Amino acid sequence: METLNFSKIQNKELQTYSTRVKGIINIAQISPEALDDLQFLKIPFDQKVDAFEAAGLTGDIEYTGTGKKELDIERDSAFLGLRGMVSSFKFSTNQAQVELAARLESIIRKHGWYLNNLSYAKQSAGTRNLLNDIATKFTLEELQSIYADAWVNALRASQEAYEAYALKLNEGKANQGISQTELKRDLVLACTDIVAYLPFLNRKIADPKLEVLIDDINKLIIDTNAIIKSRETKASQMPTEAN
To answer: pTM above 0.70?
Structure first.
């Protein structure tokens, strides 16, 4: 049998290889006697292939779109915009606007004038409390009179977007379970065991379809090794930054 370079194989390559080995064995239509003899290796091998594939769907979740940091930056911008608007109206010639700005500034300071510099969790809690406080102590008309309504709406929208993303992120992490990296060693061993057993089985039980199966797997190993070598070659040829 050909030998696969497992020491260099990546998770996606291993998943493709093991899935194809499983498929080759399943469609080979080897004799019932040979198939029965192989079961002690085939059953755990199939289970490990399925588990590895499932881990690839859940254990390596990637979140696309705007990330946590970007959403936090949007939230910071809305908060700073609100704070800046309030500060500017403290110098208004309209006394009513000055008083409204002073009231709103007092509430912002209560929850943290530098709220944007806090940790993600503390900033989220402080922003929620700030928005609730503003909603109960100011009418829409009052906010509009000092042009703070747009900034409050922007802050609320960015806070909701941040929390929705954080919830999705946490749910994803909770559902990840075991990763492919954790399962890799067991699958490599299972692949090695079942492939190495095939020549012995072919000597033990005369079956032309076993010979075809072995030949197909040998071709797969050669192709997989070529893929690994090509990837390694390309990686070694990539320019590196000068120190």
So the answer is: no
